[in-house]
Amino acid sequence: MITKKDYKFWFCTGSQDLYGDECLKNVAEHAKIIVDKLNATGILPYELVWKPTLITNELIRKTFNEANLDENCAGVITWMHTFSPAKSWILGLQEYKKPLLHLHTQFNEEIPYDTIDMDFMNENQSAHGDREYGHIVSRMRIERKVVVGHWSDPGVVKRIAGWMLTAVGVIESSHIRVMRVADNMRNVAVTEGDKVEAQIKFGWEIDAYPVNEIAERVSDVSEADINTLVEEYYDKYEILLEGRDEKEFREHVAVQAAIEIGFERFLEEKNYSAIVTHFGDLGALKQLPGLSIQRLMEKGYGFGAEGDWKVAAMVRLMKIMTAGVKDAKGTSMLEDYTYNLVKGKEGILEAHMLEICPTIADGPISIKCCPLSMGDREDPARLVFTSKEGHGIAVSLIDLGNRFRLIINDVECKKVEKPMPKLPVATAFWTPEPDMYVGAEAWILAGGAHHTAFTYDLTAEQMGDWASMMGIEAVYIDKDTKIRDFKRDLALGEVFYR
Ligand code: MN
């Protein structure tokens, strides 16, 4: 599924013709060198493309409109090498619809003390030109990222690289299509929401299907295809019979193999990139999709349980944003389940009935078949594992009735102290920042859900920038969070985003 596109980012340098052709020649030369060196760092996840220096209203407007139309262009990086009168940028910026980064840099790192003269000053004046340009972008209230520093600084390159993933998230958001089986779980509030508004804000298309339409596709899967996939499972995962009959166990696993194949065919045929199930509405399906959903998530599909289309779309979004990221540690839907409140060892045990993505697994992955306490179906086969240690973010997109809010919590993933042999589901365990008490208090005050989209591979900054681009509120719960300030942030959000 994942299908990461070969996106490119345009590097547009601003100037004007006040200082003569020699200066403009140098401007173009410098920009080309910067683009080549940035591409050569190996840090940028997507290629930068040099564009001819922008010096007139006409060319600026034309270039931004070309960027809009180019399907492979995911954003534009601008830099004012000299002084570029910002009124010439107004019409182009007005018509530009994609992510924008303002790289506030200059070609030379150090002031050339011995040789500096007025020609040098005029040619290398981004401190001046970038302020003129920044003014007009601010005056026009255009959302953009500003990155400051010398272009050779690895910290600067990493920030550009990080923003590229955000930009891809913005572009890809409007390609997310969620297939829902049935509706939301009865009486549950936080998984509900305004799907029309979600399409207006994020571009998400969310469609429901009767469960038996997809169940039919599952029953069409051939015995041979099922057996091949079951063999793959048996090769790849540890089989934990735990006293069950070998043949009966395999039959249970085969049900999930059929669901994986049938669901995937259905999703591919109808071009969906995320799926939502409902344990209470399984129609002709023999088991709640467990192992099968875990495998689909691993392939890059978004997933939400109990009708939660918001988390399904967020998981898909974060999976496509992190697609191809070097040393990625994984992205999954998770659910806050139960606490450890022992002093000094506080944390939240994260799990779900079944559906946790194996990309976050640490160590061996096993298959178990166990009864489900909810619903009325066969004991479903599921993948069981524990998750990696390290830093991650948990995000929750909520609908406040008149608008959306994205809650982003930095969390520290840990190992639980002891094995949990009787718990037949995949788990993660984390302590929210700044600590269990403030973290959970802030989360609850913000109205955060129990379902989250979790990843090790994105930062709060990246997701917050995505929210800003989408025109929605983002609130951060991290090491700097104090409840008094946090409540003021929420109150300000009420005013600003009404
Ligand atoms: Mn749930």
Explain how this protein is built.
By secondary structure, this protein is of the alpha/beta class. The protein is built from 15 helices and 19 strands. It has helices spanning 20-40, 57-69, 90-95, 118-123, 126-139, 154-173, 195-202, 211-219, 223-236, 246-269, 291-298, 309-321, 436-446, 460-470, 483-496; strands at 8-14, 47-50, 73-80, 100-104, 145-148, 177-181, 205-209, 238-239, 274-276, 302-304, 331-340, 347-351, 361-369, 381-387, 390-399, 404-413, 428-432, 451-455, 473-477. The strands form 4 sheets. Strands 11-12-17-16-15-18 form a 6-stranded antiparallel beta barrel. The protein has a 5-stranded parallel sheet with strand order 2-1-3-4-5, sandwiched between helices. Helix 6 (154-173) crosses helix 14, helix 9 packs across helix 10 (246-269) and helix 10 (246-269) packs across helix 11 (291-298). The longest helix has 24 residues, at 246-269. Manganese (II) ion binds next to loops. Manganese (II) ion binds at residues 305-306, 335, 352, 451.
Secondary structure layout plus pairing:
Elements: E1 8-14, H1 20-40, E2 47-50, H2 57-69, E3 73-80, H3 90-95, E4 100-104, H4 118-123, H5 126-139, E5 145-148, H6 154-173, E6 177-181, H7 195-202, E7 205-209, H8 211-219, H9 223-236, E8 238-239, H10 246-269, E9 274-276, H11 291-298, E10 302-304, H12 309-321, E11 331-340, E12 347-351, E13 361-369, E14 381-387, E15 390-399, E16 404-413, E17 428-432, H13 436-446, E18 451-455, H14 460-470, E19 473-477, H15 483-496
Bound molecules: manganese (II) ion.
